[in-house]
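Fold this sequence, please.
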Amino acid sequence: MQVSFAPNRLQRAQTRAGDNHVARPLLSPRGARVVLGGEALANGLARSIVPAANTLFGPRGACLASERGPLFVCDTGHHRLMIWRRPPSGDQADADMLIGQPDFSREGRNARGEVGAATLNMPTGVAAYDGILAVADAWNHRVLIWHGYPESSNQPADVVLGQADFTGGLANRGASQPTAATLNWCYGVAIADGKLIVADTGNRRVLIWDAVPTVNDTPADVVLGQRDFVTRDDNAGEAGGALGMRWPHGIAVTGGMLYITDAGNNRVMAWRNFPRTNGAACDFVIGQADFMGLDHNRASYYPTSSALNMPYGLTVHGGMLVVIDTANSRLLGFELDGLAMDSSAIALAGQPLFSDKGDNRWRFAGRDSVCWPYSAAACGNQLVVADAGNNRVLLWEAAS
């Protein structure tokens, strides 16, 4: 009788084109301290995602304005922004306010009505800093800005970018070419060093405003990913390289450096000095061996500590650049000190090994697993993770 022995997980990992070095834990091994939405039944299946004050449907963006709150969540599939005045201390806490729907039991694009100053259509990115709130209202092809955090439900935005006024909702305002004042599927937004930065994903570019606008229809000051404001070519019309991009999403700024997740090219682009001129090429990338590499997981089925598969989000925490490696259902931590071309991650969450992948590790959702996480934002000693595939948001403390 022939006897075969199944290799254990570590042996399987070592036979792959993966890594043998051990990952540091990025987040607490106990899992998320608080889970919002995504409540599971006893059989492990998720509860209904019918809109309510404590349910979420594919949330793609979330952030804490400070450790004292408020907490903002883009409940993308329900076309609304959920607001908790204080950070929730327990699971399934009800939101206090919302923007985009008449009440917590309603859903639908633009509240099933006309586009307005308090309606949303697939809100995806959110940023809050020093009293300013910015929301990437992706399928209305605009960014909404509140100068002062909302104090009541459906408080209208103060400023709109990408459209001439609050009633517009067409990509590039219906034109075939973009301008410095139009947007097309804008998925990411950040406020950093007084600047507003927007991932204008459908136009394959990132727009930068030198100051957060206070007037509707303000044009951007700088464009990255294209050589000018009127072009929207994939990868700037080239096969690859350091200038163009494909489906930019996440944005992070630290130490004067700018990082952008280039999800369609399975990489993160990095500028050592914050770019101030149109079409500035990045200095290096992570996730690929060079500027011409574009394949997910570097054309391998299994990931490694230096490969990415559709990274959508990123943030900075504890001396690390945290990359949301969405299609590998994991979070990676790259040490900022010495970060350069082809750097490897040193920390990991969501998977046991750098060579592992799979939604919820191919199991039911747990407090320490993720399924197509879309973004994360650092605040204090925790990350706020938009765990989109599990229809939930996690407040997850850093590993000690």
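Residues 9-15 form the longest helix (7 residues). The chain has one helix and 25 strands.
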